[in-house]
Every structure is written in structure tokens, then in C-alpha cells.
Amino acid sequence: MRELALHILDIVQNSVSAGAQYIKITAAENLSTDRLFLSVEDNGKGMDEAMVARVVDPFVTSRTSRRVGLGIPLLKAAAEACNGWFKISSTLGKGTLVEVEFQHSHIDRMPLGDMGSTILNLVVSYPEIHWVYDYSVNGRHFEFDSQPIKDELGDEVPFTDPSVLAFLREYISTGIASVQTDTN
Predict the structure, then answer these.
(1) CA 147/CA 144 separation, integer angstroms
(2) pTM for this structure?
(3) Which of 15, 81, 88, 171 has a 20 to 30 A CA-CA distance from 60?
(4) What is the pLDDT of residue 58?
């Protein structure tokens, strides 16, 4: 994978497949400590300890569409290659938390990628899921929460309505840009 947003999509697909109704994605950049932290937390069916221990094996997957599961092992390897770490914790019936950290300035660290489009696509593709995207850079913070918007729209107006799509795209991109101001 060429960017971390694609790794996030892969992990989120696992969350969706596990029946999650709530998924929180966190991305925190701290340039003063030279760290990039990412996490995906869900309330899906979770895994037992044996499966958690095996999930970093590329030949273990719960998907029926393919026999290998490369997403998590590749993310773990990428983090460790960039002076970082990977952690997964899960409880049956409660959900899973995947956390990863990278040295922000490491020459081999993949770019974060277009998280705005990633979040927008997830919200539109899975409107029944409560999505939260928590993004911060050096203490500046933006949080996108799909539930208040969904509550305001009601059942009559879908996220795919052109005016809603335009609003979501602008809201998310403006929020992300406001956090990134003066970081370059």
C-alpha cells in the first residue's frame, strides 16, 4: 500500500465485516515529538485472545474472498520499519482496537494520504455506521462525527444527496486544513 489511508480502509473493512455499528478513526501528528499515531476502534464482534495473537500472520484471515490477510501484517511491518510500534487488543462481543505509531519524519514512512476523501467515502458507503474521525496536529484538533449530521437529516435525506455530499466534503476538508495550518 502506498499510503496509510489505504491501511486504515483495510482495517475499517475488518470492522465493518465484524458488524461494528460504531467506528472511531484517530490520527494524531506531533511534530515536536516526531510521532504519528493512528488507531481504529470499533464495537464489532471482537476476537478471542488466540485470534488476536494470530492476526499479525499474513496467512490468517476471516474473509472468505481471499485466503491471506496482508493488511495488518503489512501495517505492523511498516510501523516497525519506521521506529514505531503496532498493538491490537480485542474483546469478544465488545470490539477491537488497532493502534500504530510511526516516527513522523522517517524517510520510509508512507504519507497519511487523503483522509478527507477516505472519511467521506466511508460515511457515504456505510451510512448506518456511526463514524468518528479525530484528527490532531501539534495540539490543534478537529473531530468529525457523523451522528449529529445523520440526526439532523433524518430518514428523508441521505448522505448521498448532492447538497449533503458537498457540505460533508467542504466540512471535512476545511476541518482538516484548519488543523494543519502552520505545520509545514
Answers:
(1) 9
(2) 0.91
(3) 81
(4) 67
In tens, the pLDDT along 125-151 reads 999 999 999 999 999 999 999 999 999
Q: How far apart are CA 139 and CA 6, in angstroms?
A: 25
Backbone phi, psi, residue 137, to 5°: -135, 115
Burial group, residue 84, by CB count within 10 angstroms (0-12, 13-18, 19+): buried
Cα atoms in the 13 Å half-sphere on the side-chain side of 75: 27
Sheet holding 95-103, edge to edge: 85-91, 95-103, 35-42, 22-30, 130-137, 140-145
CATH fold of 4-180: Heat Shock Protein 90 (3.30.565)
In one-letter notation, the amino acid at residue 98 is V
Distance CA 10, CA 113 (A): 14
Position 53, amino acid: A
Place of cell 489505504: 6
Q: Where are the domains of the chain?
A: 4-180
Residues of the chain with pLDDT under 70: 58-70, 182-184
The DSSP-derived string for 104-138 is: TT-TTPPP---HHHHHHHHHHH-TTSEEEEEEEET
